[in-house]
């Protein structure tokens, strides 16, 4: 039976269409436990307020709710720093700006703009700092709703600190999410991505009449990019977890082993895909048994890792025994199959070579000094060519008229304009456009649901009780997609405003929120177009040059490994760098294709050809790692080709003429790589990408 084609263009099945906005929901991101914990932190204080009727409790409840937004998971220490920083700064901002509001816009606006600049620029220190900065902007906008006396400001700040500490206490002490669970889930996602990659290989190998070069390029662009991104996400979580503990625990060691085994398996799967693209029907038939049994085994292993449960070793061993190619199979296929099955076995048994964990440099990497962590990103982004600096300046400039509207037209709804403008705006236009669509669509849908619910709630106790399930729903959907999260969160906002600001119709609340959201989204999109944009064609050229350089290092490391001149860890690190460079190139290409103007369109098309060529070259290099070790005259041939590859890729990056090929040009191991480099150089030359263009950054 002909296998059904896999669905493309979603987060569950990545697609090759770089021009498509990544807006599809991923329902595996639903986290009911997180929703319940956020509801407890927020809802318990709301219910207490209905009993005591003390208004400062609403500030405490809102602080607890906003603190939950800042908790993005991971190991305890980074989460603790983020939550405490938000609680401390949030209380200070609310109290201080509430007091300053009484002195008029001449004092408030300059200070508020400086704070917005700092909050939006905080993304240079990573996702946790970016999240805290975004939510602090929300606190700032809420603080400007009404003026406070000094006594009221102190009370508000104290209650905000109490709410933030209450939420942090629940998250990190009372109702702790399993500290290892995020790492297990991330590594499980890696193995699940490998299962999908293997399943797609099975489909392609079974349909030789449809597997032209474009089909294999789509496979490489979609699946390799997704697995590499998953590996890097898991690597970050595992390293943070290892650094947050005084010693390497048994669970953390298991996570390191499984991640390293998955990364090595990924490299071999790349080699297998390149082998199958050029294989004969007989060779594909030999690989059919492996590709038929491998995806289910990887899927079982993924589920066990995500749940931190033992793997049925007997079942895995039986599947691996059946998947092994027969004695008459091609030797290259047998070598790759043995390495694939060995890595699956390591992931299942958690036993293997003693140096496996250290092979990728995971276990022994110390945390960088805090000065380097703080100052290095700051220095790197204090240049006008930095997208993050331009984003912070752009957000600050556009926030000025929005804050002016809030100052001269006070009310319970105007702060939504500033919040929408700042939070919708992103460093790149494509991301801003996507965020605006998701925020507007989610707000309208969620607002209608919230209005219906608030219409039938006839008393404050009913509204307060309704907020608990709405909070569960909103936070549980946080990982699905931004649009889904906004759609689930907006009903909570509508009910909250109905409770805090009685006297407003639920339909009025929905209408005003929709109005300011649409207006703010439109302003953010226009600002991204008009105010100091960084158009992607120039950044594509930079990304392409980096990709060429990293693939040159990869080729050098592979040959050095096969000649016995370097350890396999160097080749693994070079493969990782090459994969990351290809992913960065594709991300820049995706943003360029989504831009409204298409300057340098021919160069973008040339970069897409280059991306596909580099993916193919990486596959050939992966196959070289499974070739028998060269000796004698063959070793001299390999050295000659290594020198040529480095010089040829450097010349391609600079737009120069390729050097003459070695005399041993008949080498089949390097002939295809040389042909790919020649194709790449010709494509870039016809597109007019020369030394100046390749090095441009503006």
Written overview of the protein:
The chain has helices at 32-52, 56-70, 76-100, 105-121, 127-143, 150-174, 181-205, 213-243, 250-277, 281-307, 313-323, 331-349, 356-359, 370-381, 387-408, 415-424, 429-456, 460-476, 482-500, 506-530, 536-562, 568-593, 601-624, 633-654, 668-686, 691-695. Residues 1-16, 351-364 and 691-698 have low confidence and may be disordered. α10 (281-307) runs antiparallel to α11 (313-323) and α15 (387-408) runs antiparallel to α16. It is mainly α.
Task: Give the tags.
mainly alpha, 75% helix, 698 residues, disordered C terminus, disordered N terminus
Distance between the termini: 53 Å
Category from helices, strands and their pairing: mainly alpha
* H-E string: HHHHHHHHHHHHHHHHHHHHHHHHHH
Mean pLDDT: 79
Structural shape: globular
Helix count, DSSP H or I runs of 4 or more residues? 26
Unreliable residue stretches:
1-16, 351-364, 691-698
* Percentage of β-strand residues: under 5%
Based on CA atoms alone, the radius of gyration comes out at: 28 Å
Number of strands: 0
Helix content: over 70%
Profile the largest sheet: none
């Amino acid at each position: 039976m002909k296998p059904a084609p896999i669905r493309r263009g979603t987060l569950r099945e990545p697609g090759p269409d770089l021009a498509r906005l990544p807006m599809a929901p991923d329902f595996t991101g639903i986290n009911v436990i997180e929703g319940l914990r956020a509801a407890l932190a927020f809802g318990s204080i709301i219910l207490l307020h209905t009993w005591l009727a003390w208004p400062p409790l609403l500030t405490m409840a809102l602080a607890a709710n906003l603190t939950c937004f800042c908790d993005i998971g991971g190991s305890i220490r980074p989460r603790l720093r983020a939550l405490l920083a938000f609680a401390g700064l949030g209380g200070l901002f609310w109290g201080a700006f509430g007091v300053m509001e009484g002195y008029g816009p001449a004092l408030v606006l300059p200070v508020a703009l400086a704070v917005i600049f700092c909050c939006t620029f905080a993304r240079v220190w990573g996702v946790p700092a970016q999240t805290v900065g975004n939510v602090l902007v929300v606190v700032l906008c809420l603080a400007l709703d009404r003026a406070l006396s000094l006594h009221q400001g102190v009370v508000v700040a104290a209650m905000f600190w109490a709410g933030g500490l209450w939420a942090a206490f629940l998250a990190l002490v009372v109702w702790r999410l399993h500290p290892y669970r995020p790492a297990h889930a991330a590594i499980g996602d890696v193995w699940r991505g490998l299962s999908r990659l293997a399943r797609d290989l099975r489909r392609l190998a079974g349909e030789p009449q449809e597997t032209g070069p474009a089909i294999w390029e789509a496979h490489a662009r979609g699946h390799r990019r997704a697995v590499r991104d998953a590996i890097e996400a898991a690597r970050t979580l595992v390293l943070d977890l290892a650094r947050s503990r005084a010693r390497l625990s048994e669970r953390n060691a298991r996570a390191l082993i499984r991640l390293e085994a998955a990364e090595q398996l990924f490299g071999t799967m790349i080699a297998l895909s390149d082998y199958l693209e050029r294989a004969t029907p007989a060779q594909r038939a030999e690989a059919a048994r492996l590709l038929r049994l491998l995806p289910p085994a990887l899927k079982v292993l993924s589920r066990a890792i995500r749940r931190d449960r033992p793997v049925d070793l007997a079942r895995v061993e039986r599947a691996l025994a059946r998947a092994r190619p027969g004695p008459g199979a091609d030797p290259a296929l047998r070598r790759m199959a043995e390495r694939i099955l060995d890595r699956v076995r390591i992931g299942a048994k958690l036993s293997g070579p003693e140096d496996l964990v250290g092979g990728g440099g995971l276990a022994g990497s110390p945390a960088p000094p805090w000065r380097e962590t703080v100052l290095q990103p700051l220095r790197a982004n204090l240049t006008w060519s930095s997208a993050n600096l331009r984003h912070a300046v752009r957000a600050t400039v556009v926030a000025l008229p929005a804050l002016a509207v809030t100052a001269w037209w006070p009310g319970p709804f105007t702060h939504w304009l500033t919040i929408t403008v700042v939070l919708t705006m992103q460093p790149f236009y494509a991301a801003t456009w996507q965020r605006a669509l998701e925020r507007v669509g989610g707000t309208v849908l969620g607002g209608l649901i919230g209005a219906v619910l608030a219409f039938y709630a006839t008393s404050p106790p009913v509204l307060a009780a309704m907020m608990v399930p709405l909070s569960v729903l909103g936070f549980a959907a946080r990982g699905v997609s931004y649009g889904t999260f906004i759609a689930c969160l907006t009903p909570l906002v509508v009910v909250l405003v109905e409770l805090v600001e009685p006297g407003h119709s639920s339909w009025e609340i929905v209408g005003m929120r929709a109005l300011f959201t649409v207006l703010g989204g439109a302003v953010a999109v226009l600002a991204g177009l008009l105010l100091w944009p960084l158009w992607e064609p120039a950044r594509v050229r930079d990304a392409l040059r980096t990709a060429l350089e990293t693939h040159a290092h990869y080729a050098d490391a592979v040959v050095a490994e096969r000649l016995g001149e370097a350890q396999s860890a160097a080749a693994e690190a070079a493969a990782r760098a090459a994969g990351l460079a290809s992913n960065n190139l594709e991300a820049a290409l995706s943003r360029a294709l989504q831009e409204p103007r298409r300057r340098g369109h021919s160069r973008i098309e040339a970069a897409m050809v280059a991306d596909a060529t580099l993916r193919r070259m990486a596959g050939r290099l992966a196959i070289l790692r499974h070739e028998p070790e060269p000796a004698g005259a063959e070793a001299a041939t390999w050295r000659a080709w290594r020198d040529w590859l480095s010089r040829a890729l450097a010349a391609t990056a600079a737009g120069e003429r390729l050097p003459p090929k070695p005399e041993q040009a008949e080498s089949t191991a390097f002939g295809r790589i040389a042909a790919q480099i020649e194709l790449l150089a010709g494509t870039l030359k016809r597109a007019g990408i020369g030394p100046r263009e390749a090095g441009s950054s503006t």
